[in-house]
């Protein structure tokens, strides 16, 4: 039952986001106090941030992939086409 209640309340939070009403107005219209509704808004926000998300990247033009085992650097004036920067500071640059 807990999951069903959460799903129902999360659906109401989503409905509120699309309603254009303030949280207080929306809560009142569905028979909840502002504080109870705020609790569910917060719970919904936390549930979304706990789940990792996947974003598919697709290039407009398929890059030519060359894998080299040497540590050869690109030409000095070459600009990377794609740059991936990771939280630890590691950076992957893809050149054409």
Shape: elongated
Share of β-strand residues: 5-15%
Mean pLDDT: 81
Characterize the biggest β-sheet: 2 strands, antiparallel
Helices and strands, in order, run as: HHHEE
The radius of gyration over CA amounts to 24 Å
Trace the largest sheet across and list its strands. Answer: 1-2
Total beta strand runs:
2
- Helix segment tally: 3
Low-confidence stretches: none
The assigned structural class equals mainly alpha
Q: What tags apply to this protein structure?
A:
96 residues, mainly alpha, 3 helices, 2 strands, 43% helix, elongated
SSE diagram, text form:
Blueprint: H1 2-19, H2 23-29, H3 34-49, E1 82-85, E2 91-94
Antiparallel strand pairs: 1-2
Helix pairs in contact: 1-3, 2-3
Task: Give structural notes.
By secondary structure, this protein is mainly alpha-helical. It has a domain at 2-49. It has 3 helices and 2 strands. It has helices at 2-19, 23-29, 34-49, and strands spanning 82-85, 91-94. The chain has a two-stranded antiparallel ribbon with strand order 1-2. A hairpin with a 5-residue loop joins strand 1 and strand 2. Helix 1 crosses helix 3 and helix 2 (23-29) crosses helix 3. The longest helix is centred in the first third of the chain and has 18 residues, at 2-19. The protein is elongated, with a radius of gyration of 24 Å. The protein starts with a helix and ends with a strand.
């Amino acid at each position: 039952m807990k999951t069903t209640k959460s799903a129902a309340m999360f659906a109401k939070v989503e409905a509120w986001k699309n309603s254009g009403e303030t949280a207080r107005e929306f809560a009142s219209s569905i028979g909840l106090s502002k504080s109870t509704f705020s609790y569910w808004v917060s719970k919904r926000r936390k549930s979304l941030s706990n789940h990792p998300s996947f974003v598919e990247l697709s290039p407009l033009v398929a890059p030519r992939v060359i894998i080299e085992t040497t540590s050869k650097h690109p030409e000095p004036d070459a600009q990377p086409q794609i740059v991936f920067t990771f939280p630890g500071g590691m950076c992957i640059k893809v050149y054409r």
